[in-house]
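Pasting two entries for a bug report.
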Amino acid sequence: MFHSFFPQPKLFFISLVVWTLISIFGWYFFAEGLGASLGFVPVAEEQQPIDLSFFLLPENIWFYSYFLLSAVIFCGAWHLRALHHPWKLWSIWGSALIIFVTYFGVQISVVINNWRRPFGDLLVDAMAKKPGITVDNFYSLMLIFCQIAFLSMFVSIMTDFFTSHYIFRWRTAMNNFYMSKWEKLRHIEGASQRVQEDTMRFSSTLESLGISLINSVMTLVVFLPILLALSHYVTELPVIGPVANSLFWLALFWSAFGTLLLAVAGIKLPGLNFRNQRVEAAYRKELVYGEDYADRAQPLTVRELFNNVRRNYYRMYFHYMYFNVARYFYIQADALFVVFMLVPTIVAGAITYGIYQQISTAFGQVSNSFQYLVNSWTTIIELLSIHKRLKAFEAAIDDEPLPDIDQRYLEREAGVVHADG
């Protein structure tokens, strides 16, 4: 699944995490200060531009240069190490491009968040009929928003286009690798489905999960300082009282609570999805045999196989029911959580509507990033079930014992029938 596309995947991803941490700490403890001493001075959060000039700020230009240097060092080292790997341009350099473009997309969200403050305050002032407000004030801000929105659309469209090609290259690498080992794989239950369908689902699922993960990490890197800066407006929380950096701790607590809640509620679902794919494949395979052989797909056999399908679906429906209870409870509570926590600040008149919009958006961005497992849990479940099926290929290729569930299939094919198929 991985070494067909990435060079030495275990070492590659470990080194990627280590280098990422080194780069992050290097930025905050050295490069950021060096940039300020060279004239790339950061602009205070309240004074940052609300238009496209944000991307030309000295601090952003300095960071882009730092990011480019870090990427070239890491990718260049792995390019030389994997000089003969057929997919190195896509897996190494393509990954770096996706990470950078994702970061740039998060910065666009920062500009939109900056824009919310003057627009929200202007809206409230206009409703309060304060003098000096004209339609041109609104139209000029809306024109700025349109410029940001068009840039966001362009970046998103091009990112999706490139990522789709990136993921299909990954699927091609898996397909070529598995087909080169076909003689070892053909006896595995649903081997053709695993090569054709599971590799497609694995790559497409990883596309959404991978981009979401990178986006979550980048959002935390960009929005956490903003949330910390906005925390000085929120001096008191309900029940708890005064808390330093209150918005940051609220986002961390609420996200951890949701992640733990859904992880516990959905712990059985990956195995059930895997079993569901297996019983469906067994049922489908018998019907396919019945098209060519008169002694296959007999009523008793088909009835037994379909009963296995039915039993597993009923079991899944039950477990998804209480999982969805926990999930929708959390989603509905999430809509009110930040407002509830801001009530003392709002009543005290400590913030304007524009600042409230900024806080709400920044909190939502950070909270959603921390809630990566919450938002992606059903997709992760699907990916884990696909991974289990493809893992049998890895075992067959490496001449290792097959997973128990595949051994039971081979026993059934040999005449040893189990109650659950």
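Entry 2 (this is the one that rendered wrong in the viewer):
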Amino acid sequence: MLWAAAGVVALGFLIALEITARGYGLPGPITTQVQEVIVAPQSGFLLYASMALMMVVLTWRQRFIAAGAAIGIDVIIFLVRWAADARVTHGHPFGNGALWVIVAYAVIAVTRRTGQERVLLLKGVGLGLLLVAGRKTGDTWLLITSKTRPAVLDQYVAIADHALGNPSWLVGRMVTATGPIGARFLDSVYTQLAVAAVVVALFQLRNVAAERRFPGHHLVRTFLVIGLLGPGIYVIFPVVGPIFAYGADGGHWAVSNLWPNTPPPLVAPQHMSFDEITPRNCMPSLHTAWATAIFIHSRKGPRILQLAGAFWLIATLAATLGFGYHYGADIIAGVVFTLTIEAALRSLARGWDRSGIQLVAYGATVFAALLLSYRYLPVEMANHPWMFGPLLILAMVSVIYGYVRTTNRWEPKAAPTRHPEREPVPEPA
């Protein structure tokens, strides 16, 4: 019932976004996804990652057949495009085969499976399609934010960022100093975040085929909820980022060309108009939120997965700040945002109790306080950085501490090993 209700809600949300996008003359998430059955997909890696998620419910033999079929279909489509001289100018020349296989297993589930086997296979298909739909939904949301929010609040966040030492300007100069090699490396990490999430999720879901059931909580749930709720904050608090508001990428819409060499001056902030193309996707930083979720869920994996999760978080933070996509204030909000959602989902999976409610309420309160302070106290924050800077860090750390302390209590305690007491040996008479 829960999966069915979630499916209905997701479908209704996609239809609503499709209608809204069409109202602005844009293709919606359903249209763009259907097109990728034939046209070159935006991300072939994402489609294969989605297929990998779907395959957690299959046996190894079925997995090899599915992967071979996807690759074979991609080869055929590539040859057809080559014969028709249809060059791929946008996206990837592969990935259609993976989408075909996911859809094929949806048909198999409905027509060839019954009972629990049908339900399990449909859950796997739904998991794969939700990851793809999440990406398409996010793209549509970004287009909507650029159309519906003509004014942005970058000046407020940039002034508030003085309390943190203008980290985007600092890291931006560091990334620029690394040259094109460092920039390409960070860009590869930044753009393939979903693939990294799938690697962690596959580890968490590795026993689904054998146990014939999904775990109560896993990374994909957190990933999707972050993507669902985050764009709503974009609409409430529209920000385009320093590379656009204070850099060359903003063109004549930018305040001035200051990023990353010169921090913005301490003047009274105000709303500023911006174009109808650039997404208002900074507050909170969802890349930081997703990377934080990957880090959290990698903690229970083997050592190499833990190191990979820590690396991805650090590299993502360097990219978000170093490319000028986010301010330091966005990063703090993104971490608090993720921990609050993660706490809520874990509480939902294990059953709500007082500690879970308190943790979620506290995280939501801190997140709201951060947004309000960025909007209404930026000048005071900039004028008193030695007070407000530590306060911002302390607010984030308090949520981290509360999350770790509470969730550690939720972990099942291993029963102590009982050693049989040695029987006393009777002394000889």
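Dev reply: Rendering is fixed now. As a check, the viewer should reflect this: DSSP finds 18 helices and two strands in the chain.
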